[in-house]
Design brief:
With 179 residues, the chain is mainly alpha-helical. It has one domain. The structure holds protoporphyrin IX containing FE.
């Protein structure tokens, strides 16, 4: 049996940091800019276009990342010495993948139900609906955003706990170098 490597595959490291950056930007832009811009604002269609493209790219890169994760060798799951914390760490990883997929899925469902592909990309000249409030997928997209933000915070707190309190060099596993 081959020994588990000390670091994740470099492609996985690249995708991890690229997706971390893209997700933070999409969450902040979504909650701070999109949500606060009324659909009557002439700039809204441009903001939606950027957000929908970025969200779609995030979904594709996440699916590629999951595929690479399960087709390359990975370090053994990090331990804290506490069984419950270790289980929470593993659960947070699963939740991160699931929430990003349902986040993008609910965005696509909202776009489809509000006819956004034609309005935003098709140049149909149609106006946006007065608000997205009546679409059930809009509420789902907002709730999942909060759950994803909370899960990302838990993930970061866990990483800091390993790095700063346990001093086990966990962050090296998600950086480039000899595996
Ligand atoms: C994982 C990827 C995505 C993230 C992190 C994300 C994030 C967000 C956030 C944080 C909001 C504001 C929610 C709120 O404050 O209640 C939002 C709104 C929205 N998102 Fe996404 N989104 C993603 C993917 C998508 C996709 C793929 C689409 C469509 C193809 C989309 C379409 C929209 C629309 C139409 C809104 C509503 C804007 C409004 O109410 O004015 N999103 N998104």
């Amino acid at each position: 049996m081959t020994q588990a490597p000390a670091r994740y595959h470099p492609l996985l490291v690249t995708l991890h940091w690229l997706l971390a950056l893209m997700l933070v930007v999409a969450l902040v832009m979504g909650a701070v800019v999109l949500d606060k811009t009324p659909n009557s604002d002439p700039e809204k269609i441009n903001a939606l276009r950027g957000h929908m493209i970025a969200g779609g790219v995030i979904l594709i890169l996440t699916l590629v990342r999951i595929f690479v994760r399960f087709t390359t060798t990975a370090p053994v799951h990090a331990t804290t010495g506490n069984v419950l914390l270790d289980k929470l760490g593993a659960l947070v990883h699963v939740l991160l993948n699931l929430l990003v997929i349902v986040m993008a899925g609910s965005g696509i469902a909202l776009a489809a139900s509000a006819g956004l592909p034609d309005i935003v990309f098709g140049g149909s000249g149609q106006a946006l609906p007065e608000s997205f409030g009546a679409f059930p997928a809009r509420a789902a997209h907002g709730i999942i955003a909060k759950l994803l933000m909370a899960t990302i915070v838990l993930h970061i707190v866990g990483a800091i706990y390993h790095q700063v309190i346990l001093k086990d060099g966990l962050m090296k596993r998600v950086w480039f170098g000899k595996r």
